[in-house]
Design goal:
The chain is built from 20 helices and 14 strands. It is α/β, with parallel strands linked by helices. The strands form three sheets. A six-stranded parallel β-sheet has the order 2-1-3-4-5-6, sandwiched between helices. Strands 7-10-11-12-13-14 form a six-stranded parallel β-sheet. A two-stranded antiparallel sheet has the order 8-9. The C terminus is likely disordered. The protein is globular, with a radius of gyration of 23 Å. Helix 8 runs parallel beside helix 9 and helix 17 runs antiparallel to helix 20. The protein binds iron/sulfur cluster. The site of iron/sulfur cluster has 11 residues, from helix 7.
Length: about 525
């Protein structure tokens, strides 16, 4: 479905801002690939591009790949932008450049939906999801493409059902240049973890697409040159367990039809470990990774943040269960909680070692607007506003001294991502977890020369940049030779790429060159490419 009834034609430029360098964007891995330059194509903006009236020409520019040019702005009659809090400075910069061409600029997406007051310069703010506000925006632009005299805020009250969503305009994105492809089946989460803004923004009753939509999207992603891995960006893949079970057989069929050349990944709560019927189907559908917000191994802390559902099975047992279905666990971890004690970092380091999870995004607590945490801290007078927080890595006035929290975080990062410790965890994943995956015959598609050439380029880059020029060569070769002896090229490439990013990022972070939080309010200026 797309917007209809607009006879006037408008040329729309959709611009996605650069990410500020963060733990979860894997940029240190890109140099080891065959040309990856960015993380994932943006779902929201590509959805809007697909929903625009069919007669409106659209250009899409992801500034993580290349900047919007003077020619792009001169071509356009209006500009649309979307992004997350971490891209705030870059969004405002796009607005400034569009205004230099006297273009009206509309901003949508998660950041403006939570904090419209962050964006006083934009002409139109689109708050909320695709719906009546989107139609009203199109109507106003169709009627008059000049900049309104004052900011117009349009808030969605009547949302378009996800089952009516068009397939995002993946054809506009240069899919080969992304590390992962993204897809979305559901939106919203039934839980209410204190720090999380998902229930406030997208609701507690997950809304859904149909399995047929997802299969059609996967087919389109393949047509558009899908990267090897597709990530379900759903807030919680099992937020509606029945819906997950409805979808999985369709994914299995799709994999069979297309030769199992695509790996799947998703985000889900750890209590998925209690659902063997879901895990079994996910294994069959070639899910290889689940991101679980474990947050902390401390039961008191989980209770305090209302994340009791993480304790439905003992955490280490839950991780092992997921691993036994061939899926690696990636874990979110938060430090700086009110329940943190002087021994918290040691307990976390112990957990990292025992869980053998290679990739944990270890962040300092950040209070996001529209969360119960924000409201509580505001009442307690413990929210540090932006202007005062400059130079800090969190807007929370921790109960423990700030410097102690930051140095505990640095210690945890340094130990977790010490090369030998990290590679030992990857070794375990290769030998145990990856070995549990279903065995599928190598598809003809993977035996083609372009595909073999791609693998060779990545191997050359890894051997040269890590094995020869790197500064953890010995650890790397011990791991690499073991994988080569077993003929496990996939395990070698995948582990070495991500490990390199983690090691490099952790070194930058512990030396103060990176934020201690993916959501840090330290709004450092990402170098927005010049026009
Ligand atoms: S389970 Fe995850 S998505 Fe759901 S409220 Fe908690 S943190 Fe947010």
């Amino acid at each position: 479905m797309r917007a209809e009834g607009f006879e006037t034609v408008r040329r729309i430029l959709c611009v996605f801002p650069r990410y500020t360098s963060s733990f979860g964007t894997f940029e240190h891995a890109y140099a080891l690939t065959d040309g990856v330059r960015a993380f994932m194509p943006p779902q929201g903006l590509l959805l809007i591009a697909a929903y625009l009236p069919a007669n409106w020409p659209v250009r899409f520019v992801d500034e993580n790949l290349k900047p919007a040019t003077k020619e792009d702005f001169e071509w356009a009659e209006a500009v649309m932008v979307s992004g997350m809090h971490i891209q705030r400075n870059q969004m405002n910069d796009i607005c400034r450049r569009a205004h230099a061409h006297d273009l009206p600029v509309a901003l949508g997406g998660p950041s403006v939906s939570a904090c419209p007051d962050y964006y006083p310069s934009f002409d139109y703010l689109h708050v909320g999801e695709l719906g009546d506000a989107t139609h009203e925006l199109f109507r106003r632009l169709a009627e008059d493409p000049s900049r309104p005299s004052e900011q117009v805020v349009l808030t969605t009250k009547d949302r378009v059902a996800m089952s009516e969503f068009p397939i995002p305009a993946y054809e506009l994105a240069d899919t080969h240049k992304y590390l992962l492809a993204s897809i979305q089946y559901s939106s919203g989460c039934p839980y209410q973890c204190e720090f999380c803004d998902i229930p406030g923004l997208y609701g507690r009753n997950p809304r859904l697409k149909t399995p047929q939509q997802i299969v059609a999207e996967l087919d389109k992603l393949r047509e558009c040159g899908i990267p090897d891995t597709v990530y379900f960006v759903d807030d919680n893949f099992i937020g509606n367990r029945k819906a997950a079970l409805d979808l999985l057989p369709h994914l299995v069929e799709w994999q069979k039809r297309t030769g199992y050349v695509t790996r799947l990944a998703c985000e889900a709560t750890l209590n998925i470990a209690k659902r063997p019927e879901i895990l079994e189907k996910m294994k069959e559908a070639r899910f290889v990774t689940i991101f679980c917000g474990i947050e902390t191994p401390d039961p008191d802390a989980l209770k305090a943040m209302h994340k009791d559902h993480n304790m439905m099975v003992p955490i280490l047992e839950g991780v092992q269960t997921i691993n036994s279905y061939g899926m690696e666990v990636v874990s979110g971890i938060i430090m700086g909680l009110d329940t943190d004690k002087p021994g918290t970092a040691d307990a976390l380091i112990d957990f990292v070692e025992k869980s053998r999870i290679p990739l944990l995004t270890i962040n300092l607590l950040q209070a996001l607007p529209k969360t119960p945490l924000w409201d509580r801290l505001e009442k307690e007078g413990r929210l540090i506003k932006d202007e005062v927080a400059e130079g800090r890595d969190s807007n929370v006035d921790f109960l423990m001294p700030y410097d102690e929290v930051v140095s505990a975080w640095k210690r945890a990062m340094a130990i977790a991502y010490e090369p030998a410790a990290l590679y030992a965890r990857y070794q375990h994943q290769c030998d145990y977890t990856y070995a549990q995956r279903i065995k599928v015959p190598v598809a003809d598609e993977l035996k083609t020369w372009p595909n073999i050439r791609r693998a060779l380029i990545m191997l050359r880059n890894i051997f040269w940049k890590v094995g020869v020029l790197g500064n953890y060569k010995r650890v790397f070769w011990k791991f690499a030779l073991g994988r080569l002896r077993k003929g496990d090229i996939e395990g070698l490439i995948g582990s070495a790429m991500i490990a390199h990013h983690l090691i490099e990022f952790a070194r930058a972070a512990t030396s103060g060159r990176q934020n201690a939080s993916n959501y840090s309010i330290r709004l450092r200026e990402a170098a927005v490419p010049a026009e």
